[in-house]
Amino acid sequence: MGTKRAKLNLDFGHSGISMNFVVANDFQPRYGKEGDWYARTINLNSEEFEGFPGMSQNRIDEGRIKTVVDSINRNISELQRENGYDFDSNLEITVSAAFFDVLFFPYRIEFSQFREITEDDIKKIEICKLPEEMFKTPIPDEKIRSLTSPYFTISDEMKVLEPIGRRAKNLGFSAYFITKHPILSKFLEIMKEYEEKIRVSLSCESEFRALASKEEKRGKTALIHITDSISEFSVWQNSELKYLNKKESGIMKLREIIWRLCLGYHKKPKLAEQDFEFVKRNDYMEKFYNTVRKAEISEDSKEFLSADDCSLLLEFIPCILENETEYSRLELPGRNKMRTNLTISNYVLSYFARTTIRSLLFEIKQTMFDDDFCKPNSIILECSLPLKGIEELAKEVFGIPARRGYVKWDGEIRQDLSSSGAGILQSLISGEYRNSNIQNRKRTTKILSLFGNIFSKAS
Q1: pLDDT band at 430 (very low <50, low <70, confident <90, very high)
Q2: Residue 321 in contact with residue 346, Cβ under 8 Å?
Q3: Strand order from edge to edge, sheet including 231-237
Q4: How far is CA 307 from CA 98, 128, 226, 302, in A?
Q5: Are 395 and 376 in contact (CB under 8 A)?
Q6: Which residue intervals of 25-97 are DSSP H helices?
Q7: Taken in order 180, 186, 189, 190, is the CA torsion positive or negative?
Q8: H helices then E strands: how many in the chain?
Q9: Spatial CA neighbour of 186 closest among 454, 456, 444
Q10: pLDDT at residue 7 is higher than 60
Q11: CA-to-CA distance for 74 and 77, rounded, in angstroms?
C-alpha cells in the first residue's frame, strides 16, 4: 500500500490532549482545498487517561506521563501501519487555557514632578509596548505571547483611554504575558532535545480562524469558550489577537447547581407537586434558587447522588424557553443513573440553567469590559453543552450581537472535529506553513522514540 501525505497537530485542549490530522485523498492534493483532505480527531481522553495530572500541579507524575506516551505511540503506530500515513516533519502544537497561565505585569514611566501628560510621553510608552521590549521582562515561566492593555494607567491606579492633558506623577500600561504551564514546558523541552521542528501556537488562534466569518475577521470580535472548569475569552481586531484572558470557572457551576436541585427533590419528593407554583412567580423561583445554592450538603447526601448521575439532564436543559414551549416534566435521575418515579419541571431546570450561566457571563463581561477595557462589537460563543438559547443570553448580558460557533470542514458541520483542530488543519493545508527547504519524511519512527524517552527523562 502506498503512503499518503498527512499533517499532524497535537492539541493541548480545554478537555484534554487530542491528535488532529488531515490525510490527502489523492497523491497530489490541492493546497487550500478541504475536499482533497480527510480531517479526523483522536481524543486521548479514554479511561487510560483518567486521573491525568491537573494543571494546578507543578510536577510531572511519571506514571501518568507514561500513559500519555503509550497512547500517543500506539495511535501513531497504528495510523502508520494500518493506513500508511506519511506525516510531515513539522509538529504543530496548539495550547488552550488549561495549559497556559496569564501573568499581569504593570509598566510605568515616573515623572520628576506632578505634571500634564504630553504626546512625547505617549510615544515613549508606545516604544515600551513593542514585542521585542516586552520580551525583555524577567517573567519566570516561558512566554508564548505578550499583549498590552488598551488603556493607560496614570498615578499608579487610574485607567484611562485618553491620558494626554491629564495631570499625573507617572504614566503606564498593563502587560499580559501568556506563559506555558510547567508540564507543557517539560514536554516541549524533551521534544526539542530530539531536534523536532515544533511550532507552538495558541488554540484560540486556530479557533478564531475556523469559526469567524469574513466580516467578524475584519471587525472587533470576541471569542468566548466555556468548558467544564475554565472559561477562555479573547478579543480580535482585524484578525489580530488583542486580548486574552481566562477564568477558573465554567460549566461545573451548572453541574453543581443541577445536582443540588436534584438532590433536593430526592430529599423532599413533595417538591415535584409544588414546583409548578414556583414557576408562576419570579420571586418564588429566585428564593428557591438561592436556597438550593446555599444549602449545606452532608457527606451522606453526596453518597446518595452524584453530579455525574445528573449529567444526562444537562443535554436537555435550555437557557431560554421559547414562548411556545409547553410545560413538561423530566424524569429525575437516581444513583448510578437508575430510573426513579420522581419528575422535575422543565421550567425549573431552565430557570436554574439561565441564572447560573447568566452569572458566569456577567463575570466574564466584568473582567473583559470593566477591568480590562476590552469592548468588542460582536461575540462568537463556544460551549461544551448544547444549552439552547445561550447565544440569546449572551446577547442580553453583553448588549452586542452574539452567535454560537459551529465547526465546518469542506462546507459541512463537523461535531467530531474541534474548532482548534479544524483551524490549525486549515492552516496546514492552505500552504501558509509550507517550507520548501524542508523535505517531507515519515515522522513515525522518530516521534515514537521521542515520546518513548519522555518517561525515562522526565523528573
Answers
A1: confident
A2: yes
A3: 240-247, 231-237, 220-226, 378-383, 402-404
A4: 22, 49, 19, 9
A5: no
A6: 62-83
A7: negative
A8: 14, 20
A9: 454
A10: yes
A11: 5
Nearest to 316 by CA among 328, 307, 306: 328
Set of cell numbers at residue 271: 417538591
| Residue 120 contacts residue 37 (beta carbons within 8 Å) | no
Residue with grid cell 460582536, as numbered in its chain = 378
Contact call for residues 402 and 378 (beta carbons, < 8 A): yes
pLDDT at position 318 is 85
The amino acid at residue 247 is K
How many CB atoms are closer than 10 A to CB 272?
Answer: 17
Over residues 169-183, mean pLDDT: 89
Quote the pLDDT of residue 155. 87
Buried b (16+ CB within 10 A) or exposed e, 46-75: eeeeeebeebeeeebeeeebbbbbebbbee
Single-letter amino acid code for the residue at 234: S
Query: Do 176 and 245 form a contact (C-beta atoms < 8 A)?
Result: yes
CA separation for the pair 459, 439 (Å, rounded):
34
Neighbours of 222 (CB within 10 A): 27
Average pLDDT over residues 313-335: 79
The number of residues in the chain equals 459
Taking the complete model, does pTM exceed 0.90, yes or no? no
Q: Which residues contact 329 (CB under 8 A, 6 or more apart)?
A: 272, 343, 344, 345, 346
Domains of the chain, CATH where assigned: 4-98+183-204+409-457 (3.30.420), 99-181 (3.30.1490)
Let me know: does 428 contact 46? Beta carbons within 8 Å: no
Are 378 and 8 in contact by the 8 Å Cβ rule? The answer is no
Contact yes or no for 327/276 (Cβ under 8 A): yes
C-alpha–C-alpha distance, residues 33 and 420, integer Å: 18
Q: Which three cell numbers stand for residue 190?
A: 524533551
CA distance linking residue 212 with residue 210, whole number of Å: 6
